[in-house]
Write a structure and sequence with these properties.
- The chain is α/β, with parallel strands linked by helices.
- The chain is built from three helices and six strands.
- The longest helix is centred in the last third of the chain and has 18 residues, at 101-118.
- It is globular and about 45 Å long.
Amino acid sequence: MRVLVQRVSSAQVSVGDEVVGRIDPVAAGVPHGLLALVGVTHTDTEATAKTLADKLFRLRILQDEQSVADLGAPVLVVSQFTLYADTRKGRRPSWSAAAPGAVAEPLVDIFAATLRELGTTVATGRFGAHMHISLVNDGPVTLLLEA
């Protein structure tokens, strides 16, 4: 599993004209939140999803080296199979390392549910949909978590 994490001042995801997920950290009383783009591969399990969600929850990349756990910052979770693109050969990426939707969707859901269980507000995209993501990257801070 790969999670591309961006510290954001705000973020939202839309499908067509409908906003399906949005975080507004300032309105929640904190200066930052996180956008988590989640990619799943064939060997990932429920344990992998829970471990990475916990890591993200405790990652000290917010204001004053605090974490989502410290501040209660919101997280926007969006599935992103393209994190497993293989671009080593030719000009057309291979997606063979990305898990199929039937495997990936439940694991992305577990990732988001684990964050909720840990106590943070979580918004999500819509699995498999063509989505538009708007964000204000703060810092900028962008990290790749892998398990």
